[in-house]
Amino acid sequence: MNIIDIKNLYKTYNDSEVKVHAVNGVDLSFEKGEFAAIVGPSGSGKTTLLNMLGGLDQPTEGSILIDGTDLSQLKSSQLIDFRMRNIGFVFQAYNLIPVLTAKENVEFIMHLQNRPKAERESRTMELLKAVGLEGRENSRPNKLSGGQQQRVAVARALASKPKFVLADEPTANLDSKSTENLLDIMEELNRKENVTFIFSTHDQRVMNKAHRVITLEDGKIISDVRKN
Amino acid sequence: MIASVAWRNIWRSPVRSGVIIAAIAIGMFAGVFTTTFTKGWMNQRLEAGVETEVSHIQIHDPKFTENYELKKYIPGGVQLSEEILQDETVNGTSPRIVIQSMIASSETGTGVRIMGIDPEKEKTVTNLYTKVIEGDYFESMNRNPVFIGKKLAKKLKVKLHSKLVITLQDAQGHITGGAFRVCGIYNASNGMYEEMNVFVRNTDLARLAALDETVAHEIVVHLKEPEKLEKHTNSLQAKYTELDVQNWKQLTPELGYINEIGNMYTYMFVVIILLALGFGIVNTMLMVVLERVKELGMLMAVGMSKARVFWMLMLETVLLTLTGGITGILLGLGVTYATMKKGIDLSMYATGLEDWGYSTHIYPTVETEMVIVISILVVITGILASIYPARKALKYNPAEAIRTE
Ligand SMILES: Nc1ncnc2c1ncn2[C@@H]1O[C@H](COP(=O)(O)OP(=O)(O)O)[C@@H](O)[C@H]1O
Ligand SMILES: [Mg+2]
Description:
The structure holds two protein chains of two kinds.
Chain A: E1 2-13, E2 20-31, E3 35-39, H1 46-53, E4 61-66, E5 69-70, H2 76-86, E6 87-90, H3 102-112, H4 117-130, H5 146-158, E7 164-168, H6 176-193, E8 196-201, H7 204-209, E9 212-217, E10 220-226
Parallel strand pairs in A: 3-8, 3-9, 6-7, 7-8
Antiparallel strand pairs in A: 1-2, 1-4, 4-5, 9-10
Chain B: H1 2-10, H2 14-54, E1 57-60, H3 64-67, H4 77-85, E2 90-104, E3 109-117, H5 119-122, E4 132-135, E5 145-149, H6 150-156, E6 163-169, E7 175-186, H7 191-196, E8 197-201, H8 202-209, E9 218-223, H9 229-239, E10 244-247, H10 248-251, H11 253-256, H12 258-291, H13 293-301, H14 306-340, E11 344-345, E12 361-362, H15 368-394, H16 398-403
Parallel strand pairs in B: 3-8, 5-7
Antiparallel strand pairs in B: 1-9, 1-10, 2-3, 2-6, 2-9, 4-7, 5-8, 6-7, 11-12
């Protein structure tokens, strides 16, 4: 059973003189528990694809079904709620609220969902432990390294137990050691807790860790390889 | 949680926030202090106008008030004054003979209003007797004493014990004059009043004007409950239908409105300050929003609705405004309380004020209602100033916001 079904997806930008077909006819499915990388050169459409998949941007054409729900059928208020419950996000940068501590950042979404305090606390501590940040829960982002900040972002993305996590170039600003560390943590969460990760990258070492590599070029899929 | 984020966000740029907070604080300090200062000033003017000059209620023959004709007196006015005094709501009454006349010193002369009074009764209706700056209030002098204002003394170039001649037309229509001596000089902090109002004993004036001692042109009534002014005015009017019963608000409408006008001016002042500050706040918040576009995009992506983002920015603006506002209001109140006892002496800078009845020594007064209204205005300013920047933030969809450079 697929948790994501993308059919005939297009995104065309008209705002400049020339039309840009950022995503140009993509059909793609993901199953529960995948650890998949979307790769391709800069400008190939990775961000555009992930944004549409996350409901942050509307397709020009085509449909995205998540567990049977067609994203285009949701009203904007429903979409926000849907995102909050079903999709975790990790961005390249500006992931965290600078004025909140690591713990508060992870708790933030659960706050918006009005979860009880006890649940929030235990879930937060569990996640921070899982990403190896025990003891740093009261640090603000500017007191954490880039790698630590991205790990907080991963913990935050998982806070509301989403169906899958979208990570757009999560390691782009990290050195190789932090990159490896972050990938290891993500892989472990994937292996032990069956968390579905879909991340984009143009870093060869990151691709090597993925269980499936989808390659984009000019908005089209040119290869989709599963490793075992 | 959102409130806490909003509050902490203010301190992300301590200098920028500090500058706008300081501007708001200074503005609100000025607003509050001007308000308490004006309030004190107006109250003093009101107090002087009512307690020193007009008293609460005055009763006349309806024709008398038209042109102060000598013959339009209240026959048996002295008796009537005693009768009104019997009412338990009345604190004091005083019958007066009032005649427009000329007063002259050896140097010069001028037209004035002569009040023939019984000093002991007069003390129960006004506090003018407490405003003596030289001599006394009809105490030591036996023959024809006259009690005049500071400003008139200056104008006529007379001193204590100087001789003054009062010339008037008596009840038979003859021009007649009498010599009086200055027994005391008063300072009513109102040059116009001081120049116009001259006091002598009613017996002396009645003799000079060939009037019966039992008549009065004016009966002045001082109430025990000044706040029930309208009610007592009406009941006296109902009782003495042939006479004209007027309270101080009717006699001196400008005093009646002084509070409303004073409040209106100070509110206008505060609103203008807030308007100017409002633009500064809008500008600060626009910078905030521009700086945080990516972060706001992230917040929207992870589940904050536009309404919540709007609310967060509005809260941040209101908290910023309130921080400055409350600081300024407290400073204003602090300076008010510090100067309340001793007052502020403006006599060096504003000598002309006294001519218009405004004291130059001002005691600021706090009115809780005004402080509350100003606080509400500050909050409203914060809310209004937040709308434009917050709307700017909502223009972006999350994907665009995260992509912005
Ligand atoms: N808002 C936009 N307006 C116009 N063109 C855009 C916009 N966003 C992206 N593009 C274009 O779409 C193409 C794909 O971009 P993007 O999805 O960011 O690629 P990647 O993430 O793989 O680098 C690029 O050519 C980019 O210039
Ligand atoms: Mg990209």
